[in-house]
């Protein structure tokens, strides 16, 4: 049952009262640590994932299959953010949903730590489900800590929270990656489980500092709706169980019976969701026009993430096979490359925040469209840069580690140009009816981009070697051309955006 927001139900540490965390509500410390440990477990496991999939001591799969699995996994995490928000809105409320999510993630990492292929894929599924549930709701609870959107501390609070994300992401490959690569793969996955266990424990202990609003189920289901939803869910589960049971017992099951349907879902769902919003008769003409403009940003973002997320798959596998992973003669684990982006984010994000304000005061801040176009051009440039180490490797030599660091640097600058702007424009252009859901729609751009990568790399479908010079150059050209297309049509898109800038 939803908690009531009476005066007596407000905890002493909610907005503006009691002890603080760097001047912010105490609950921010709880959410900061929860997200830091969850990102520690998530990014640590993700850094190991493609390397374990191809390693002789791991699952020893082909690079194409490993990339497809990695891409489907990442796409599912962002796809499941939509139902994750729905679970909180209709069933459990944000706080209980995050607690359940933490438990599911921990169990998933424990399953990954078991040395069997079956439990490994079960573990991947559990981590994806838990991450989707958590991602959709923990940011919402940060917002609950403040007295509405006009609270002067709100932006700074989210900045601190963002630091927690990147701190966990930075440390994870250094710890989990080192143990996984140098000691034992499954010990590394077990460390990820320990990280999530610590995050869950401190979340449960510190949840008393959260806002009472985080306990509320905003639009709870009636008993009849719950019964109907449960029935439908069980029917679809039974259909899937029977179908895959028949496929398995007849000896026809392969990994692609799961990978290809999930890849297609990752491509179809974003199209269906945006089309449904666009056709909603409750929207007025101005809102429909803004949704039409938003499609440009969505497609641009999908192209961006398609290339950007290969930093954890294509680039990582290239580094494993063809790079000289040493600094001053000291060899470091391949997974450490995954710490480059978060440390650069922490260093450069304040610079970009200052830069936009400085340019705005002089009337020279680039428009949202120009920032988006720049992000696409930069991610394309990163893959043009990738051609250099690829050429070195094709010549029979090991590419220097700094080539890869340079690629990650260019991609990080592109991310800071496009990603925060995308989050902002999503909130500005969202129709009133879909104000909360549109953030989930933004995440679907990641799902779409990674699903394209999965489709291309899967040997049973596209069979494309993503680390070959021809295809890398093609992707680079695609991103740059997309960036210029967005820029060239900026007047048309600006007109569709109405009063949003």
Largest sheet: 2 strands, antiparallel
> Which architecture of the largest domain does the CATH hierarchy give at level 2?
Up-down Bundle
Mean pLDDT: 89
Q: How many individual helices?
A: 16
The CATH topology of the largest domain comes to: Growth Hormone, Chain: A
Distance between the termini: 41 Å
Radius of gyration: 23 Å
What is the element string, with H for helices and E for strands?
Answer: EEHHHHHHHHHHEEEHHEHHHH
CATH classification, class level of the largest domain: Mainly Alpha
User: Given the helix and strand composition, which structural class is it?
Assistant: mainly alpha
Question: Can you list the strand order of the major beta sheet?
Answer: 1-2
Strand content: under 5%
Counting structural domains, the number is 2
- The tally of strands reads 6
Can you tell me the CATH superfamily of the largest domain?
MFS general substrate transporter like domains
Ranges where pLDDT stays below 50 over 5 or more residues in a row are 1-17
Shape: globular
Protein model, in words:
- Strands 1-2 form a two-stranded antiparallel ribbon.
- It has two domains: 11-220, MFS general substrate transporter like domains (Growth Hormone, Chain: A, Up-down Bundle), CATH 1.20.1250.20; 254-501, Up-down Bundle (Growth Hormone, Chain: A).
- Strand 1 (20-21) and strand 2 form a beta hairpin.
- The chain is built from 16 helices and six strands.
- 48% of the residues are buried.
- It has helices at 27-54, 63-79, 81-112, 117-144, 154-182, 185-206, 223-249, 256-279, 285-308, 314-322, 340-361, 368-394, 401-429, 438-457, 469-488, 490-497, and strands spanning 20-21, 24-25, 323-324, 326-327, 330-331, 399-400.
- Helix content is 73%, strand content 2%.
- Helix 5 (154-182) runs antiparallel to helix 6.
- It has 501 residues and is an all-alpha fold.
């Amino acid at each position: 049952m939803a908690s009531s927001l009476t005066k007596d139900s407000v905890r002493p540490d909610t907005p503006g009262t009691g002890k603080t965390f760097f001047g912010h509500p105490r609950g921010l410390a709880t959410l900061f640590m929860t997200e830091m440990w969850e990102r520690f477990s998530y990014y640590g496991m993700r850094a190991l994932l493609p390397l374990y999939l191809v390693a002789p001591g791991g699952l020893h799969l082909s690079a194409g299959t490993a990339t497809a699995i990695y891409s489907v996994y990442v796409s599912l995490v962002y796809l499941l953010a939509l139902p994750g928000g729905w679970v909180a809105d209709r069933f459990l409320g944000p706080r209980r949903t995050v607690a359940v999510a933490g438990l599911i993630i921990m169990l998933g990492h424990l399953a990954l730590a078991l040395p069997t292929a079956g439990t490994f894929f079960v573990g991947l599924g559990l981590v994806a489900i838990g991450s989707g549930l958590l991602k959709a709701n923990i940011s919402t609870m940060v917002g609950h800590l403040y007295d509405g959107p006009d609270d002067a501390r709100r932006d700074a609070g989210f900045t601190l929270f963002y630091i927690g994300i990147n701190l966990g992401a930075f440390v994870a490959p250094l710890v989990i990656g080192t143990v996984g690569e140098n000691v034992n793969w499954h010990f590394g996955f077990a460390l990820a489980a320990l990280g999530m266990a610590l995050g869950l424990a401190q979340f449960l202990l510190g949840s008393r500092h959260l806002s009472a609003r985080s306990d509320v189920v905003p639009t709870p289901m009636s008993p009849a709706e719950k019964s109907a939803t449960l029935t439908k869910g069980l029917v679809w589960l039974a259909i899937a169980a029977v179908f895959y049971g028949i496929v398995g017992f007849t000896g026809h099951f392969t990994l692609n019976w799961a990978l290809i349907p999930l890849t297609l879902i990752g491509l179809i769902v974003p199209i269906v969701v945006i089309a449904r919003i666009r056709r909603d008769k409750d929207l007025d003409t101005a809102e429909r026009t803004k949704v039409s403009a938003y499609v440009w940003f969505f497609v641009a973002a999908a192209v961006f993430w398609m290339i950007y997320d290969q930093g954890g798959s294509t680039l990582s596998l290239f580094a494993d096979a063809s790079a000289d992973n040493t600094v001053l003669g000291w060899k470091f684990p391949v997974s450490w490359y995954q710490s480059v982006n978060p440390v650069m984010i922490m260093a450069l994000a304040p610079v970009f925040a200052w830069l936009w304000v400085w340019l705005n005061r002089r009337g020279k801040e680039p428009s949202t469209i120009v920032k988006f176009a720049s992000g696409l051009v930069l991610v394309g440039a990163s893959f043009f840069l990738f051609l250099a180490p690829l050429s070195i490797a094709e010549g029979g030599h090991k590419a220097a580690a700094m080539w890869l660091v340079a690629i990650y640097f260019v991609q990080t600058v592109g991310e800071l140009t496009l990603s925060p702007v995308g989050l902002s424009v999503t909130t500005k252009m969202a129709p009133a009816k879909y104000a909360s859901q549109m953030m989930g729609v933004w995440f679907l751009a990641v799902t779409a981009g990674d699903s394209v990568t999965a489709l291309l790399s899967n040997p049973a479908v596209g069979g494309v070697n993503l680390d070959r010079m021809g295809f890398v150059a093609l992707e680079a050209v695609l991103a740059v051309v997309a960036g210029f297309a967005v820029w060239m049509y900026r007047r048309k898109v600006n007109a569709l955006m109405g009063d949003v800038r």
